[in-house]
């Protein structure tokens, strides 16, 4: 099922801090399918696990490829605490997958056939902005909702300056405190 585009210009309806995780893999040796295919399948298994339990905090995700070798997922999380909780939870597959990888690394069984990486960012309110033109909810808007551009400002500088009620109160307190 394909999402219908929303006509005109819209922006993401994010408020407060935004938590973004980039996570991916690089196939270093294509012929070592037995090494990299299980890693790719594990990525999809973890996404399925998160999709079945929205309380874990994953708000949205976009699967991308940077080359025929590199695949990654941009994930938007409710909070860094929920991201950490998922990553460290013994009941979740991520914990088991990393235990296997760490065990292989300790015993010298990692052969460099597949690379793994992640980057995590907490972006404070006022440090992000987005614009979409004739697009369905995507990326940050897919995770937090989509609103008409005018609600946050026609120009990027206005969208950067937007503050939610809580963000405006915090900024005012910082100025007086």
Characteristic terms for this protein:
177 residues, 6 helices, alpha+beta, 3-stranded antiparallel beta sheet, 4-stranded antiparallel beta sheet, globular
Report on this model:
The chain is an alpha+beta fold and 177 residues long. The chain has helices at residues 33-52, 80-88, 93-106, 140-144, 156-161, 165-176, and strands at residues 6-12, 18-27, 58-65, 70-77, 114-123, 132-135, 146-148. It starts with 5 loop residues before the first strand and ends with a helix. 15% of the residues are buried.
Share of helical residues: 25-40%
With strands numbered from the N-terminus, the spatial order across the biggest sheet is 3-4-2-5
Query: Between the first and last Cα atoms, what is the distance in angstroms?
Result: 51 Å
Q: Count of helices?
A: 6
| Nearest-integer average pLDDT | 93
Unreliable parts = none
Roughly what fraction of the amino acids lie in strands? 25-35%
| Extended strand count | 7
User: What is the CA-atom radius of gyration, in angstroms?
Assistant: 19 Å
Structural class: alpha+beta
Main sheet? 4 strands, antiparallel
Name the helix and strand elements from N-terminus to C-terminus, one letter apiece: EEHEEHHEEHEHH
Which term fits the overall shape?
globular
């Amino acid at each position: 099922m394909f999402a219908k585009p929303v006509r005109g210009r819209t922006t993401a309806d994010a408020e407060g801090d935004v938590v973004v995780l980039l996570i991916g893999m690089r196939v270093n040796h294509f012929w070592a399918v037995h090494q990299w295919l299980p890693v790719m399948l594990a990525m999809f298994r973890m996404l399925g696990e998160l999709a079945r339990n929205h309380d874990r905090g994953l708000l949205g995700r976009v699967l991308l490829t940077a080359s025929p070798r590199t695949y990654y997922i941009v994930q938007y999380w409710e909070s860094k605490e929920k991201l950490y909780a998922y990553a460290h939870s013994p009941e979740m597959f991520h914990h088991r997958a990393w235990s296997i990888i760490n065990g292989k690394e300790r015993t010298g069984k990692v052969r460099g056939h597949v690379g793994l990486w992640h980057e995590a960012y907490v972006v404070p309110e006022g440090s992000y902005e987005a614009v979409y033109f004739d697009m369905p909810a995507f990326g940050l808007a897919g995770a937090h909702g989509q609103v008409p551009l005018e609600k946050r400002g026609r120009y990027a500088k206005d969208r950067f300056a937007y503050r939610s009620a809580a963000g405006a109160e915090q900024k005012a307190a910082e100025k007086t405190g």
